[in-house]
Each structure stands twice: as structure tokens, then as C-alpha cells.
Amino acid sequence: xxxxxxxxxxxxxxxxxxxxxxxxxxxxxxxxxxxxxxxxxxxxxxxxxxxxxxxxxxxxxxxxxxxxxxxxxxxxxxxxxxxxxxxxxxxxxxxxxxxxxxxxxxxxxxxxxxxxxxxxxxxxxxxxxxxxxxxxxxxxxxxxxxxxxxxxxxxxxxxxxxxxxxxxxxxxxxxxxxxxxxxxxxxxxxxxxxxxxxxxxxxxxxxxxxxxxxxxxxxxxxxxxxxxxxxxxxxxxx
Amino acid sequence: xxxxxxxxxxxxxxxxxxxxxxxxxxxxxxxxxxxxxxxxxxxxxxxxxxxxxxxxxxxxxxxxxxxxxxxxxxxxxxxxxxxxxxxxxxxxxxxxxxxxxxxxxxxxxxxxxxxxxxxxxxxxxxxxxxxxxxxxxxxxxxxxxxxxxxxxxxxxxxxxxxxxxxxxxxxxxxxxxxxxxxxxxxxxxxxxxxxxxxxxxxxxxxxxxxxxxxxxxxxxxxxxxxxxxxxxxxxxxxxxxxxxxxxxxxxxxxxxxxxxxxxxxxxxxxxxxxxxxxxxxxxxxxxxxxxxxxxxxxxxxxxxxxxxxxxxxxxxxxxxxxxxxxxxxxxxxxxxxxxxxxxxxxxxxxxxxxxxxxxxxxxxxxxxxxxxxxxxxxxxxxxxxxxxxxxxxxxxxxxxxxxxxxxxxxxxxxxxxxxxxxxxxxxxxxxxxxxxxxxxxxxxxxxxxxxxxxxxxxxxxxxxxx
Lengths: 238, 466
What we know:
The complex is a heterodimer. By secondary structure, chain A is an alpha/beta fold. In chain A, 35% of the residues lie in helices and 20% in strands. In chain A, helix 1 (15-23) packs across helix 4, helix 5 (154-165) packs across helix 6 (173-181) and helix 5 (154-165) crosses helix 7 (190-203). By secondary structure, chain B is an alpha+beta fold. Chain B has two domains: 21-127, Roll (Ubiquitin-like (UB roll)), CATH 3.10.20.70; 138-461, Creatine Kinase, Chain A, domain 2. Chain B contains 13 helices and 16 strands.
């Protein structure tokens, strides 16, 4: 199944949160406030929200309240708080479904999100990401194109997963490096080019065009999201 | 995780824990990826690869059942059996697979793929082992990183196909860029490239070289550590593909007198983040101060590092005049007889690079990239002045003219190269005491054996007349 993206607050979110969501294969979008969250909302609605109250607790509770007061409330909502903020949660139990203490352990956050999704009845089988005839099974780490298994290194797998969960969007090399490689990788930004080249080679000639070089910017996977969603080839505003 | 209930934590401590948490999560996931893939893809053997000091690939095959243990605590082996590692009394070593290098390899005729990983060598205490060439290169790259540089390399690999490993009998008599329908070698080259690409080693360019049966495959640039791994895998793949067709592939630098030898011209660049540190749009040659320092460093230390980039007795039969191999220490932009060539970039600034033409494909790539980088960095650090570009064909100059221009020669023989290297503080520092000392001792023995040998040259020339 394909998961609807999570709403993440604040924008930009804390780096470890970004990394944890990316590693776990969740699609997400950040929003700085409730009205932006409304504009950014995907057509099928948000798959849930992860709200960090660390930097701006007031803003965090405001956005939680806004998400809950809608005609169709956003569920599940997980809130990240520091130990000394626990008191702030009192009498606000209606605003969130679960919380996690910061600094959080990535595995713990992942487990809590999985549990929330299961309770909400959103995750029933293995998590699968699809794009065209490409299938990535997030649980077994296996990817296949047209039924042909791809032999990928770990980083190639992570990069492909990231691209596939963010189709149509243009990413700079720096962004890809920080989102996919994470901390302290010493290959440098050109490493992204190297991995893109390898991925293209492994995807094969027919699919190599999925990863497009956007001149003097970076890379985009597939058509722009508008064209992909509408099935048209209209050029994208991004 | 007790600290988190104790109220506010110092910001820096928290950031550190976060970073550690992120790294740990990535590591765990990487291990999980390897283990799951081995299981899902029915991998029956995992090959663990590492390299001895001479640059020969060592491989241990383990079963998936042993993999988890090997990933966690390393695989024990007897280091005294490996060239240049340890003496018998201190022989226990650990090979720790680097999960980032995990690749699946398909062997023709086998259903299930084989997995391979490069290993780092550790002592039983857990310390990295100084004699591990991969660790030597990592240490040198770390020095570059401290200055904000990432080091990229792209080698042009030349080699020969012969009918057997005992006689250098060529498969064809074709030459540079020749395309003939019956070219058996070009079919082998094609299969090799397919195998390389499927292993994630992208090829830039390939063609028939000048000598009969000689091939060239250029590898696209990567960071130097990945490239050294790639060179090791490349040599293996070329030999395996040839062998499966009953042909022998060799990286011997000069297998046949009178033909061109095989080189490993290597294109080099330093990046600062996304920016090519070798490029300066204002400079008349487009070369930055960093690039000039790097080239000056290469030139000044070229003689000291030659024993490493050209490590066999036979390497010096390639480094002679008349076969497009470098002999004289100079640089030029479009003069292919120069030791360092600075090609004019084809497009955009990211193409600025320098080509070092001495190395041959039988070198240890980890050690060769280490000393090349050390020489270049020294030039940048000490702000060596770049000598003027060599304008004339240096080969047509008389020795006196060359001396007047300040152009010296690369070492003439392995013995001379070792003499120069032994006095080099730069090479000793770059390789570390263990490898430096072993290398000199081992190569002195090779030279002594060579010196004691009476060659067919001597018999044919002297026996009848003296």
C-alpha cells in the first residue's frame, strides 16, 4: 500500500526527525503553520502528523489544535516534547494520539509511528512503494523493475527509495546528501552524481530516464508531480 | 536514556547524542539491509575482499550463516599468511566487512548471485591495522578532509589479452580505435563493461589501444576510496571474463618489448563541497592556486612516489622514451609526453582536472592514490611554485637542453626508485611506518632476485662472442 504523506512541523523540521522519516520510508511535507498545512494538503488528505514542540511549543499546540478542529480531523498526531515539557501535555490530551520524548531514539519513534498506523488501520501488509513498474518493498529492502530484482548497494537503495517517495520534486545535491546520506559522509556532494549514474545503469536503459538531471540545480525523479498525477505531460511549475 | 527525564540537557550534549543516534540508526539499517538482502536473494556465499600490500586481491568466502557474526565482530584470520601484514608471532587479525560496499555479483551459469564486500583489517584489540592499504588511504583522505577537500580519481585502465598466461600471443593485430567485425577482444571488452556496470562501476569510455590486443577501459570518477575498491574489482572482473572465454588478461606494465606498455593514467581533482577547487575562471589557464600547488607538489615529489605508482621491476621497462609513457618530469596542457597533463575541460568548471601519467595498472591503487594525494597536498600546503609549462616536445631535446630547462627524469629502475623513496619523509609519513618499511624490504628482495638472474638478452648477446 502507498501511505499518504505525513504533515511535519516545524519547517524546516529537526534533522534527526527528517532522517528518521526518510529512513523509514515515510513520505512527508513540512509546514510552518496551519494555513500552509491546509494549502499543502494532498488530495487524499494527510496520513497523519508529527509535530515537534521543542523549538516553539506554542506554535506546536496551535497547529495540533487546528488539525483536530477540522471537519475531518488529522489522525494520528504524534507530538515530540522534551522531558521538562511533559507538564504542558496535561489537559491537552485531545490534541495528540501519542508522544515521544526528545532527544528521541530513531527506532523508538519509528516503532511508535508503526503502532499508530496499525491502530488507525492504515498499515495492514508489507509497506510497498510503487512507481510505474518499479516496486520497493520497504520491509524486505528489495526493489524490482518489471519483476526483475535490482542488485543495489545500501546507499543506492536508500537514494532510489527517497526518489520514489518524492516523485516530481527537484532536489539539489546538497539536499540529497543531507537527506539520504545523513551525517558526516565524506564522499562530498559529487557522490550524489556517482550514485545517480550507478542507479541509472542498474535501472537499465528503458528506465534510466526516470532520474532526470535538472541543469545547474540537481535531480528530479520522474515527471513533475502534477503531470504524474493527472497523467498529462504538461510542464510543471516547479 | 536516563538523562532525558532529568530536565533540560546542555544543547551541545543533546546535539551530539542526536548525531550519534542518527549514525547508529544508519549503521543498524545498513547491516539489516545486507542481512535481509542475502536472505531474500538466496545468496549462498559472501566473498569478503581485502588487499595485501603488493596490491593483490585476497578473498575469503563465508556462508550467510556466518555473515551476521562477521558483520558484528569481524572474521578472524591468520595475518602472517598475507604479504606485508604481520610476522608469525603476532598473526591474529580481524577482517571487518564494510557494509557500504555490499554488492551482488552474478556468475555466469549460476542461479543465485554471490555477494561481496570489502573489508577493513583490524587488530584483535579492535584498532585499525596500520598495514591495511585501505586504512592507509583512509588516513590520507582524512588529511584532505581536514582541509575541506574531497579527492576524486578517474583512471584509464590499460591491459592486454593473450592466448595464455605463459606466452604473450595477441588475439589480434588491430590498433588504436580499430573496429573489426572479427575482433574477439572487442566482444570480451563489451562483456566486461556489462559486468562492470551491473556491479555499479560505471565506464566512461573504452577502445582498442595502440598495441596489438591492447585494450583501454576508462572508469568514471568517484571518490578515491571507492575508486581504489573499483580498481581492485575491475582487475578481477577483466580477468574473470577473459578466463571464461579461455583467454588470459594481464595488467603487466610491459609484457612485450617493442610494443606500448600498459599505463593507468589517472585524472585527479579536489572538490570543496560542490565546487571544483582546481578551477579558477580568472586564471589564464583556468587553474586555481590549489591546482597549481597540487601539480607543483606532484612534480617535486614525483621521483619519491614512483616506487609506489610503478612497483615492479617490469614497470620501468614501460617508463622509457618512444612509447608514449612519461619519462621526464614536467607538466603541459596538451602535450601527451608530459608527466602531468592538464586537459582542457570540455564543459563547465567541474571538468577541471589534472592527469598523472606515471602509474601502471599493476600498482596497489590504495597506496598509489595515497602518495599522489600526499604529494599534491604538500604542494598546496607549502605553496610550491608551479614551474613553467613544457612547450616543446621534451623527447626531442638534448639532455643538456633538458637540464637547462630544469627537467629531470623519473627513476630508471626499481632500484633507483627505492633509493629515492627510502629518503622520502613524505612517502614515509603518507604510508605509515609499517607499510613503508615492509615495502622497501620486500622490493629490495625483488630487485636482488632480478639482479641475480641471467637473462636471454645477455646469453644471446654475450655467449657467442665473449
